[in-house]
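Translate structure to sequence.
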């Protein structure tokens, strides 16, 4: 049977674009991508990239304050959201066109519209055309969701936050995960009065407990009104456009804006997957094996839509591995172990490997922790503390986890991740010479365990 394409990718985000480019440029595949919104996907258009630019913008407030302590005669005139928004929009448009150009340069055809699955080898476009393909890759990502009782009442998600016409004076952020904590720090840094409600006992569930407590304390010290063990009970849009909320502690409060950062769901609604026989999980994620293949042999899926690890570099690796396997004659399984990640709070929180609790569940551990005031902000009179932590297997001496809360922690963890991936022991860390004077040197200078099992 001849097909219109060797590969049809639904979704022009990080994972889908990488797969199509590699399949076309290295595997000689006739490949196409359908994207209904903007090329680049969540990461480029309404995720990592605009978020990181907002993190930079927010960081200048503290930097200007510190500059004064270092002798600079500077006066901040306040933050102008309009100026930033215009530059942000221009940058995203530039990146979107880079994505499009790179895909096209690799020989990938782009259909700027929605595509759905008709059968295991056929996709239909919104304009009525349909195409056959030997392989179909679902790379439609995820989307933020607002819990049911509050949906449709005018609150924002991270999709809208980059599109605000003006910054609110006050905002309530609901959630305690990556997105909630990052935007709490960003918006507080930009001068917004931020309240954050988290339903559990401590934010960043799943991260190491010392990291969680340290981040929460630093966020609170910077002025984020963080309320744990607190959830929304009611949400009402007032006639002036503001919001009135009541919470589980019985308080009634008003905010200019409400942002739900309560998780993301796989984008699989009305995609024709069930009709084509593709198995989905209870949460709507496409179920795949280690090769990113679904139960329908011609249909594969990568990235957030599979709900394995919702991170851009993971989606890219999965897309690349898929293209190598199917079109490059190089069977490759993406490796989901020891994946480092960072939460861009202020300071950043970064992590690789096991938490203390996870490691201890497998055997005795030695825990090394260092907390200190970094030189740069201490000189400026700030009390901000950083934290470095190593979780070490007491039997093998292997470093099982590294957790850092510090400015540039995300940059540090990338390199720690190489060491941990290689199986470095605490003795390897100890015999590594420090780079002085840095914050990162502390990671090779911790000698006395803070806690030791057995
Ligand atoms: P997360 O899963 O990280 O956090 C969701 C938060 O919302 C949790 O605190 C959760 O609480 C809470 N929550 C869920 N449902 C409800 C509800 N019904 N009512 C109240 N609270 C609720 O999701 P995010 O949306 O923050 O981010 C999604 C994913 O995107 C992340 O997991 C991450 O993989 C990725 N991401 C990565 C970033 C990075 O690399 N820097 C940045 C942003 C996103 P509980 O803990 O109790 O379940």
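Result:
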């Amino acid at each position: 049977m001849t097909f219109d394409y060797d590969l049809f990718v639904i979704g022009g985000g990080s994972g889908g674009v990488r797969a199509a480019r590699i399949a076309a440029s290295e595997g000689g595949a006739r490949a196409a991508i359908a994207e209904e919104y903007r090329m680049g996907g969540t990461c480029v258009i309404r995720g990592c990239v605009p978020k990181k630019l907002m993190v930079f913008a927010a960081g200048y407030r503290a930097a200007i304050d510190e500059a004064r302590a270092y002798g600079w005669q500077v006066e901040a005139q306040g933050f102008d959201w309009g100026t930033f928004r215009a530059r942000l929009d221009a940058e995203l448009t530039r990146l979107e066109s880079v994505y499009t150009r790179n895909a096209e340069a690799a020989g990938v055809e782009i259909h700027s519209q929605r595509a759905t699955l008709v059968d295991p080898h056929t996709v239909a476009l919104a304009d009525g055309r349909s195409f056959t393909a030997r392989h179909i890759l679902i790379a439609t990502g995820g989307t933020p969701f607002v819990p049911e009782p509050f949906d449709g009442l005018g609150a924002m998600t991270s999709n809208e936050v980059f599109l605000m016409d003006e910054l609110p004076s006050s905002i309530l952020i609901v959630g305690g995960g990556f997105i909630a904590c990052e935007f709490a720090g960003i918006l507080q840094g930009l001068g917004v009065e931020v309240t954050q409600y988290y339903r559990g006992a401590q934010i960043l569930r799943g991260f190491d407990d010392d990291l969680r407590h340290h981040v929460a304390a630093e966020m609170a010290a910077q002025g984020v009104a963080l309320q744990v063990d607190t959830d929304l009970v009611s949400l009402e849009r007032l006639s002036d456009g503001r919001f009135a909320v009541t919470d589980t502690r019985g308080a009634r409060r008003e905010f200019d804006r409400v942002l739900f950062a309560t998780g993301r769901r796989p984008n699989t609604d009305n995609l024709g997957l069930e009709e084509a026989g593709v198995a989905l999980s209870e949460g709507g994620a496409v179920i795949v094996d280690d090769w990113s293949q679904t139960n329908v042999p011609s249909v594969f899926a990568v990235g957030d839509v599979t709900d394995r690890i919702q991170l851009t570099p993971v989606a890219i690796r999965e897309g690349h591995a898929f293209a190598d396997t199917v079109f490059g004659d190089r069977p490759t399984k993406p490796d989901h172990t020891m994946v480092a990640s960072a939460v861009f709070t202020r300071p950043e929180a970064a992590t690789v490997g096991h938490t203390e609790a996870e490691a201890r569940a497998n055997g005795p551990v030695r825990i090394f922790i260092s907390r200190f005031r970094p030189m740069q902000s201490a000189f400026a009179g700030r009390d901000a503390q950083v934290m470095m932590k190593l979780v070490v297997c007491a039997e093998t001496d292997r470093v099982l986890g590294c957790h850092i809360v510090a400015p540039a922690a995300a940059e540090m963890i990338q390199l720690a991740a190489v060491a941990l991936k290689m199986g470095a022991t605490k003795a390897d860390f100890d015999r590594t010479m420090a780079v002085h004077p840095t914050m990162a040197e502390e990671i090779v200078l911790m000698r006395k365990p803070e806690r030791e099992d057995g």
